[in-house]
């Protein structure tokens, strides 16, 4: 049985990490949780029946001596907590982004190599079932050669934008530093060696002056194609969608309904367009139906559940996890480029 401790008793640990680790009850035991706010730690421990609580991460590491430290604290703390946990002998599972600077990722990578510990960054959407299936379809040549991609992420204003004291506003790049990594690592599953970035941004809501921008349009240039990422924080809508363009077709992935369809419109006559619409509608209905049944049967299969299961297995099997430290570092490298471009432009209208 592997001993897991969890740092940070906020939104993501309660919603995803703790339930996902508890679902692995034959392999791991969640022994303790910790939060600077001890009341938050106690509340979380009570809700999940976890025995011990701490207000201090170092204290928890010292007393618990965990096999795995799961770090669900704000990004500003990832490097220092991650390095400390590795040095105290724990494998670490780290919410995205791996750190705020590439230099911090490098220190973490060096520590992991020195102490022979595994580090896995929560790039949860690469474990989204629809994303996995669409990527397999692409790798089998389903849409020909890769040409480029577009990603659209929308986060409602009441999640972060309207909250003056949310830690995301204090990140380099502001709110872009919070969900930007999702857009970047998803793009990196297809785009290799991003070497140049552009970013346009627009301030939409003057009532929230602490939020830098609410609309970001990003261009990622890589050796094998161009990706664009659009992030919006001004509506009341959630969205997470990708279009992957190939020489023989296009894949449209909806990460929230966990469905993907193949878009085939080689001609524009009524029959071809009609047939493509019918195939897409049928594909969506089938996939949604299967997902609905799985959900009702309690077979949870989202990115966090799958990612946490995969990471735990990588520890048990003593092999690197599927999301490597190199992947985590690459995302931070591109986030640093984006932040620099954003801060250079300082666009407002
Ligand atoms: N992968 C995803 O889909 C996803 C979604 C949401 C958040 N996240 C990531 O998860 C992390 C946490 O986000 P959240 O929304 O849960 O934040 P949150 O603010 O809801 O919770 C963070 C908690 O960490 C605690 N904390 C801060 N510093 C600490 C320290 N040094 N030691 C112990 N506790 C400390 C805070 O008191 C707070 O309770 C961030 O990195 C964020 O980017 C990922």
Q: Quick one: biggest sheet?
A: 7 strands, mixed
CATH superfamily of the largest domain: Dihydrodipicolinate Reductase, domain 2
Strand content: 15-25%
Number of helices: 10
Radius of gyration: 21 Å
- The termini sit apart by 56 Å
Numbering strands along the chain, what is their spatial order in the largest sheet? 8-9-10-7-11-12-13
Counted up, domains total 2
Bound molecules: nicotinamide-adenine-dinucleotide
Structural class: alpha/beta
Shape: globular
The overall average pLDDT, rounded, is 95
Beta strands, count: 13
- Helix amount: 40-55%
Q: Which CATH C-level class of the largest domain is it?
A: Alpha Beta
SSE pattern: EHEHEHEHEHEHEHEEEEEEHHH
Question: And the CATH topology of the largest domain?
Answer: Dihydrodipicolinate Reductase, domain 2
User: Which runs of at least 5 residues are low in confidence (pLDDT < 50)?
Assistant: none
Label the CATH architecture of the largest domain.
2-Layer Sandwich
